[in-house]
């Protein structure tokens, strides 16, 4: 196994494909901020190349990319401490994506559950990019030789595929160029569920806006979505076991725990025996207190698109300075002549 020790480096990304949801925030961005503040080198991307695997209106894509940048910063990412940029500005992503798609095996790609979920019965009509997307995600991570990848639970399989691709590349070319990146999936809300259906993930692409809380929702909207969230008629249990078979109740307890920074056990110790009529207003108040300052700051930043573009431009240059030499080593290992 690898003798080389790689410098600790964090990479993660989010698609600028719509509103950032409470799921993205609790499952990913909150962790991004913690990792940044722990002093490790952190690189966070707006993955616009991933977003276009399904149709994106060009005007909306531009706006959503800036809005995601604003959300990153409003949630506590500091462009001085973390590298923040949009993926398409660093050409190593697309180039390495191609090189690694020649390493990844079709059998591996065929096991990716997210493609199956997204394509459903319409696989024939999906873009080739949607199918190849996990190889691009591997390139995102490996272009920076990243060692840690904070993500929600739904991305675990893609990070595992990245490890398989990295190991096969190192083995095939007899090099030690790529680390085995570790998924970091932590906290009480690694899989936030839809507010309308406890068996479905909360998602930016769900047709029902009531299924999710968007980071830009105002206080009344947040309170109303939580009040109307699907639940059952039972009071909350005092212990975790009592949440078995109650996915909607479990989801709201997990959200409360993640927002308040305590364990789900602690939430049940406080609210066990209480009805949703009591718990939901408490959760709504917690969510509003937490999210209102973020959406306020996002609105302030969105009024200065030039400043956002400047931050992204600076981030892209710093990202390129790390990724370009790695890409050069990859080409060298493969046997490509560097002729200029
Ligand atoms: P994306 O844009 O779908 O989601 C961004 C991040 O949010 C997490 N997430 C959730 N966490 C908890 N509960 C939910 N309901 C929920 N929904 C989303 C996701 O797990 C993710 O961490 N392929 C990735 C983006 C990507 C990437 C990368 C990530 C591209 N390249 C390299 C890490 C490293 C995606 O589509 O995430």
Structure description:
This protein has helices at residues 22-37, 48-51, 58-74, 92-101, 106-110, 113-119, 128-142, 156-173, 219-227, 247-260, 264-271, 276-302, 305-334; strands spanning 9-14, 41-46, 82-86, 148-150, 182-184. The protein is mainly alpha-helical. The chain has two domains: 3-184 and 304-334, HUPs (Rossmann fold); 209-300, Tyrosyl-Transfer RNA Synthetase, CATH 1.10.240.10. The strands form two sheets. Strands 1-2-3 form a three-stranded parallel beta sheet. β1 (9-14), α1 (22-37) and β2 form a beta-alpha-beta unit. α3 crosses α12. It is globular. The model has no long low-confidence stretch (mean pLDDT 96).
Task: Name the features.
340 residues, mainly alpha, Rossmann fold, Tyrosyl-Transfer RNA Synthetase, 2 domains, three-stranded parallel β-sheet, two-stranded parallel ribbon, 13 helices, 5 strands, 53% helix, globular, binds tryptophanyl-5'AMP
Summary, kept brief:
The chain is mainly alpha-helical. Helix content is 53%, strand content 7%.
**Into which percentage range does the β-strand content fall?**
5-15%
Whole-number total of structural domains: 2
N-to-C SSE string, H for helix and E for strand = EHEHHEHHHHEHEHHHHH
Coarse shape: globular
Helix content: 40-55%
**Strand sequence of the main sheet, in spatial order?**
1-2-3
Distance between the termini: 34 Å
Beta strand count: 5
CATH topology label of the largest domain? Rossmann fold
CA-atom Rg in angstroms: 21 Å
């Amino acid at each position: 196994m690898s003798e080389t020790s790689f410098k600790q480096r964090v990479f993660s990304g989010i698609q600028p494909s719509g509103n950032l949801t409470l799921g993205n925030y609790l499952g990913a961005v909150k962790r991004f901020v913690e990792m940044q503040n722990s002093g490790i080198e952190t690189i966070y991307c707006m993955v616009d190349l991933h977003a276009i695997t399904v149709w994106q209106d060009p005007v909306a894509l531009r706006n959503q990319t800036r809005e995601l940048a604003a959300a990153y910063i409003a949630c506590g990412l500091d462009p001085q401490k973390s590298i923040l940029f949009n993926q398409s500005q660093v050409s190593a992503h697309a180039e390495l994506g191609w090189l690694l798609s020649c390493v990844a095996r079709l059998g591996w790609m065929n096991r990716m559950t997210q493609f199956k979920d997204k394509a459903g019965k319409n696989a024939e009509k999906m873009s080739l990019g949607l199918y190849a997307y996990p190889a691009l995600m591997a390139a995102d991570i490996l272009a920076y030789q990243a060692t840690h990848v904070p993500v929600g639970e739904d991305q675990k399989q893609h990070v595992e595929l990245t490890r398989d691709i990295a190991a096969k590349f190192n083995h095939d070319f007899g090099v030690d160029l790529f680390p085995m990146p570790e998924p970091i999936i932590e906290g009480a809300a690694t899989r936030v569920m839809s507010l309308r259906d406890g068996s479905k993930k909360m998602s930016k692409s769900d047709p029902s806006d009531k299924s999710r809380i968007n980071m830009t929702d105002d206080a009344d909207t947040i309170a109303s979505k939580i009040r109307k969230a699907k639940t059952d008629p039972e009071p909350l249990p005092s212990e975790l076991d009592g949440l078995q078979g109650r996915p909607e109740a479990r989801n709201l307890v997990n959200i409360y725990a993640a927002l308040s920074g305590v364990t789900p056990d602690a939430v049940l110790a406080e609210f066990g025996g209480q009805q949703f009529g009591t718990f939901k207003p408490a959760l709504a108040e917690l969510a509003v207190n937490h999210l209102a300052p973020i959406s306020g700051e996002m609105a302030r930043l969105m009024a200065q698109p030039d400043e956002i573009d400047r931050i992204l431009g600076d981030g892209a240059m710093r990202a390129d300075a790390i990724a370009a030499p790695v890409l050069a080593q990859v080409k060298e290992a493969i046997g490509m002549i560097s002729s200029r």
